[in-house]
Amino acid sequence: QVRLVESGGGLVQAGDSLRLSCLTSGRTYNTGAKAWFRQCPGKEREFVASINWKSDNIYYADFVKGRFTISRDNAKNTVYLQMNSLNPEDTAVYYCAELQRSTINSGTYYYTRANEWDWWGQGTQVTVSS
């Protein structure tokens, strides 16, 4: 059974940084594409960033605006989200997700809808105070 476990969330002040981690277990081959989503209070879950298994194709939501960086360490079965210049609008539960396939896109179409992803973590809370 595939299991994803996020860590690294917390309470920070505006302008601070956080690095989230997500460890995957239960897969024989860690070749799946990975992503981060978030769910702000009262809103639907939204795409943040994704990365293919070779780390040579990365895609970000527009609101990231160069503040966040997704990366992965396949030897450690872990994907990261480095978040800089946090602001209160970034307050949300952050989820990692994984695809069985290794790619994050099909041609010009990128998988950014939550229902397109196969496995999910339980989420980690990030709260940014002003």
Residue stretches low in confidence (pLDDT < 50, at least 5 long) are: none
The mean pLDDT is 95
Largest sheet: 7 strands, mixed
N- to C-terminal separation?
40 Å
Radius of gyration: 14 Å
Structural class: mainly beta
Number of DSSP strand runs? 13
Secondary-structure element series: EEEEEEEEEEEEE
Bin the strand percentage: over 45%
* Fraction of residues in helix: under 10%
The coarse overall form would be globular
Number of helices: 0
Summarize the structure.
With 130 residues, the chain is an all-beta fold. It has strands at 3-7, 10-13, 18-25, 34-39, 46-51, 58-60, 68-73, 78-83, 92-98, 105-106, 109-110, 119-120, 124-129.
Can you give a write-up of this model?
It is a single chain. The chain is mainly β and 130 residues long. 0% of the residues lie in helices and 48% in strands. The protein contains no helices and 13 strands. The strands form three sheets. Strands 2, 4, 5, 6, 9, 12 and 13 form a seven-stranded mixed β-sheet that branches. It is globular.
